[in-house]
Design brief:
Blueprint (H helix, E strand, L loop, with lengths): L3 H9 L3 H12 L1 H5 L3 H9 L14 E6 L5 E5 L5 E3 L13 H12 L4 H8 L3 H19 L7 E10 L34 E9 L4 E3 L9 H8 L8 E5 L2 H10 L2 E5 L5 E2 L2 E2 L1 H15 L9 H13 L4 H14 L6 H5 L9
Parallel strand pairs: 4-7, 7-8
Antiparallel strand pairs: 1-2, 2-3, 4-5, 5-6, 9-10
Helix pairs in contact: 4-12, 5-6, 5-12, 6-7, 7-11, 7-12, 8-9, 10-11
Length: 345
């Protein structure tokens, strides 16, 4: 059976004009519409053989069709039946692949929820739900990111936001008065009104960032975020903070700490992490405020779109192929019932 490498070898032998024609054809709506969403997910999920999306076993056989013609499968190990979209973010969708592709293009271009809804012909509530379905699935890929080489780490802070319509919520109670005017926080410096987001980047375009707690980062927080995700042959470059000393000692990682105001020490500096923080803040400002409930999703979104070194086409393919086919479900009620401030345990 021909492989992707075989196809790439053939494409490499085409003329520039032929490659451009192929690119136009592959990206055309007509080509995308030739695959429905089930066919696309099946192609991605079953690329290496059939696998049960519920238990992960490979003893899967066909099991008839639903009334709408959708192929059903049954797993001989767990005994459960499923369709190809089971346990995916497109489970239950009534839109074809071209709409999801257009939605991902809107995300790549940073369009607002309302503009995305108009462009894709869907309701704004659906557009909001799709955004977080996609970002939830993208979290699965972010969990596998590991950093090596020279790694720069530092923290940034975001004011806690309870943005959203809570009028129909049965579980949420506003813990403070709304900040209707003036500053977003009423206490200067670090406080219980800001969440801490430790961030780490290497020089190959990989990054990790996640909410930990309010106030200054602790060694326990660093273990929660970075344990198993920084290789032992790496060098961590930070500012002068004792939490990193204890963390690196426990994990056998080399540590270089720079004094406040000192930009570099030989080949070591924290310019990449400072640049990352600046880009992250610009990215967040584009949304005119992000609810803390969903902040982790936006962190992952920024990491892929703005920091990763892949081309725009490669990033788009990650959204389309990995996100739509990965094992992940997200329901509307699950989104609304998330903790308002998702701190580490």
């Amino acid at each position: 059976m021909p492989t992707i490498k075989d196809a790439l070898d053939i494409i490499g032998k085409l003329t520039v004009a032929e490659q451009e024609s192929l690119k136009t054809m592959l990206l055309s709506p007509a080509f995308v519409k030739s695959l429905n969403i089930e066919d696309f997910v099946a192609k991605e999920r079953f690329a290496n053989g059939r696998v049960c999306p519920l238990c992960g076993c490979i003893h899967v056989v066909r099991n008839g069709h639903r009334k709408d013609g959708t192929q059903r499968y049954v797993c001989k190990d767990c005994g459960k039946s499923f369709v190809i979209a089971t346990n995916s973010i497109v489970s239950g969708t009534r839109k074809d692949l071209s709409v999801w592709e257009q939605y991902i293009d809107c995300m790549m271009n940073g369009l607002s929820i309302r503009k995305t809804a108009v462009a894709c012909g869907i309701h704004r509530n659906t557009a909001f739900l799709w955004r977080h379905k996609i970002l939830d699935a993208l979290q699965n890929m972010a969990y596998d990111v590991t950093l090596d080489g020279i790694i720069e780490a530092d923290e940034t802070f975001f004011a806690i936001s309870y943005k959203g319509n809570h009028s129909k919520s049965k579980t949420f109670a506003m813990p403070r008065k709304a900040h209707k005017r003036g500053h977003s926080t009423h206490i200067r410096g670090l406080s219980q009104e800001k969440v801490c987001v430790p961030c780490a980047v290497n020089r190959n375009g990989l990054s990790i960032s996640k909410i930990t707690n309010t106030g200054r980062v602790s060694t326990r927080d660093l273990h929660h975020i970075y344990d198993g995700r920084i290789k032992t042959n790496s060098t961590l470059v930070t500012d002068k903070m004792n939490s990193y000393v204890r963390f690196t000692n426990a994990n056998g990682i080399d540590l270089v700490q720079l004094k406040t105001g000192k930009a570099k020490k030989g080949i070591y500096n924290i310019q990449h992490i400072n640049s990352y923080h600046s880009q992250l803040k610009r990215f967040m400002r584009g949304f005119n405020g992000v609810s803390t409930k969903y902040l982790n999703n936006y962190l992952v979104w920024n990491n892929l779109v703005n920091y990763a070194k892949e081309s725009d086409m490669e990033k788009r393919n990650i959204f389309l192929t990995f996100v739509l086919a990965t094992l992940k479900t997200a329901k509307c009620r699950d989104l609304s019932n998330r903790p308002a401030v998702p701190l580490v345990a």
